Structures
1.
Amino acid sequence: MMEDVKVFGLWASPFTQRVVWALKLKGVNYEYIGEDLFNKSNLLLQYNPVYKKVPVLVHDGKPIAESMVILQYIDETWPQTPLLPQDAYQRANVLFWSKFIDEKTVDMMKFFRYDGEEQEKAMKENWESLRVMEKESGLSEKKFIGGNRIGLADLALGWVAHTLEAMGDVIGVKFITPDAFPHLHSWMGNFLEIPAIKNNLPPHEHAVEYFTEKRKMFLAMNYHHHHH
Amino acid sequence: MMEDVKVFGLWASPFTQRVVWALKLKGVNYEYIGEDLFNKSNLLLQYNPVYKKVPVLVHDGKPIAESMVILQYIDETWPQTPLLPQDAYQRANVLFWSKFIDEKTVDMMKFFRYDGEEQEKAMKENWESLRVMEKESGLSEKKFIGGNRIGLADLALGWVAHTLEAMGDVIGVKFITPDAFPHLHSWMGNFLEIPAIKNNLPPHEHAVEYFTEKRKMFLAMNYHHHHH
């Protein structure tokens, strides 16, 4: 039976990338529909009336929003290459870290919106979040957060191996160095070695160019906001 | 085999109540350990080093933190009275709403911390969150968010039927009225009828007394914060 799988996304969105990586890991064919954030399609608004955001997965006409919910759905629907361990306690551990990482993702992009004191403060919070992951997520003993195979929490964290690097390059800051975060740095290497990941990353220069423009926009918005 | 199940909690915490309700619904026996938030036990800090917060479930010596992660673990470990539908798409729908509700819970308690303009603003956001749930969560057609049985998203939302009411009584505001939110109001009735819920609610006067003290503390803190 031919399945109908569509992803409404934005190529530069870390949340979209999670979904793309999961489908590629599982070998699921899908149609990708790129959205224009300044002119969202009616279909996107209809499929995700609560958040009106990408990504949305549409499977046989039925829409699912929220990247972490989509990942769990993908894992249940296409069980090959499981993203969650079989054991309930280990699953809980992966879900705990997935939630931690998901909740930190938007916060951790804040440094990129601001300069000056606000940027400093946001950067400190990033170091603190990374420190918690470095110390508590068990990466000193495992290749990936869920064990020795890539899983749900790794896909959630994946953006730090690519988007955070691109954002950092624009600003001239590097968060995950081997000195500061040796385990996260090794994890990054392990993550980027997986074919479904490395073959499905936007080119780094392309991302840097995109975020350079974004950065200008954010700073202009802040200026506007502060002066009116 | 005797199972060893412990809950580290706080009786007035909506997050603790979710876990208690789930265990009661499933008929799982457990030992309850009340924490003092101003003098947390070493065990709590050891079991939840990332957040240092209740609730923590400890099952045969293994700790799990984060109420929504705990609920999924409980549902997988004790499958009787399932909290999630069997069908993957319906599961995704319940997980979507559970996440929405969980993320709004802390925000929706903000109105209680403030007065004046800040309170007004927080209250407006509450009406908006409730409006989204009233309109989009499908409660016009179902007794509960997941269908005709109580489930994960209902346990997440449960605090609005009790804690939000108590907070509202302290301040003199009622959010979920039959006029403003008829479907949420009916849901509240359905929710409070379930024996595992109604037999495991703190007495309303007890909650009102607790939140009256909390309110004084919050306002004193704001005053201190604004004037120093």
2.
Amino acid sequence: MSKVSPTETERCIESLLAVFQRYAGREGDNLKLSKKEFRTFMNTELASFTKKDPAVVDRMMKRLDINSDGQLDFQEFLNLIGGIAVACHDALLVQPPHP
Amino acid sequence: MSKVSPTETERCIESLLAVFQRYAGREGDNLKLSKKEFRTFMNTELASFTKKDPAVVDRMMKRLDINSDGQLDFQEFLNLIGGIAVACHDALLVQPPHP
């Protein structure tokens, strides 16, 4: 049965799963990003957003860690991706109201 | 200045923006998915999830349309992507507890 090639949206969802797993699987609980794993993820995948500033990364972790267990589960990770995507969307497409 | 190639996570965020814009920009408000645009998006990009069943698509739209304005903005669209990603993550990685 020929496998239909995934759509752009399906590839994006696959990427989210693969990237989270790549970093969450490095140590400890494979379903959560530890502080160290999150820092490695941010400095590798989203360095342009944090300029590799540990203080910025730690603050982001605190805000994202909704259940304060010191780790980020997949939903908390998606909130980060969503937050960045909305910020980019607003910056690129939503013109600021004219004064 | 050589443009560093985007990371997998950055490409994914770019895709989310591009796909949303591709469908939201077809008619009416370019920053929102109308019911028709959402149906076209689902039947093109995520047909494997809905089997192109209009009733399924309409039910999803109602649940996603948090502010009930009959359209989906980018945040409501991201909630869909996040919901599907979490469902896939749980199905693939989170083994159901042994009875």
